[in-house]
Amino acid sequence: DRLTTELAVAKARSAAKAAELEEARVGTRAEDLAIARARVDQAQARLAEARRGLQETRLVALTDGVVLRRLASVGDHVTVGTAVLEVVDLGDLEVEIEIPGRYAYELGDAPRVLLTADDLPGWSYETALSARIPAADERSRNYTGVVRLERGGAGAALRPGMFVRAEVDLRLREDVLVVPADAVRRTPLGTEIAKAVVGEAQGEGPPPTTAEVLAVDVLASYGGQSAVALKDPAASLAAGERVVLSGVDRVFPGAPLLPAQAAPAP
Questions:
Q1: Percent of the chain with pLDDT over 90
Q2: Which residues, including other chains, have CB under 8 Å from residue 156's CB and lie 6 or more apart?
Q3: What is the mean pLDDT of residues 149-167?
Q4: Where would you tag: which of 37, 112, 113, 139 has the fewest CB atoms within 10 A of its CB?
């Protein structure tokens, strides 16, 4: 029985070896090759996915800049769109100018802008306004102008966040009334000026002078003078007519006025 069993085992091993020999002679079967190719494709797909995952852990700057703040640390879990770094490009600087609404439409096509900075005594930079945002800010109601500084020019002295003063040239206006800035009174309902109206003389004394309050729009102010436009088309104010300068906050329509006396000659 033992020898019979050993003979059967030997025959099975011989048959297995013969099958391996035959397979080696014929070559690998197509099914095995297909399975091997599929496994290779899966391995390559896993490798590509691992490479993409590794690439997503790296942040690449598109331009040169300076990192101001780090908003996330290594190992933090972040989602798509989460800010990680605050980077500033010091090569292309822009200055944002707040333009009051009453001046926004008084700018020309390419107004000149003169920039100065309190932190840089003696520094100035003159250029043209690069762009204007047509929509006003919801809170301040101001419009925003943008000045793009030339790379490597005098504007390179500025730093992000620095306060800058700007003087912008307004469009030239002709045939506009100009009054002393002290004559303009600002009220919750708008801006006003008071014109001195001289009445008819009564007796030997000087003719009475009263106040006529006129609603105006201030177009621009500079050097102690303001350019104004009358809101009421029926109102009148001609060049050379006198306006109230002293005590304008206490003037009301029809208020009696005392004209200022000329200073005596020395």
A1: 6
A2: 90, 93, 149
A3: 82
A4: 139
On whether the CB atoms of residues 106 and 219 are closer than 8 A, the answer is yes
Helix, strand or coil for residue 250?
helix
Tell me how far apart the alpha carbons of residues 92 and 65 are, in angstroms, rounded to a whole number.
10
Q: Distance of alpha carbon 156 from its chain centroid, rounded?
A: 19
Question: How open is the CA angle 6-8-10, to the nearest 5 degrees?
Answer: 70
* DSSP calls for 118-186: TTSTT-EEEEE--EEESSPPTTT--EEEEEEPPTTSGGGG--TT---EEEEPBPP--S-EEEEGGG-EE
Tokens of 139: 């809170």
pLDDT digits (tens, 9 = 90+) for 181-230: 899 998 888 899 999 888 887 767 678 888 899 999 887 777 788 888 89
Position of tokens 């600087």? Answer: 93
Residue 94 token pair: 């822009």
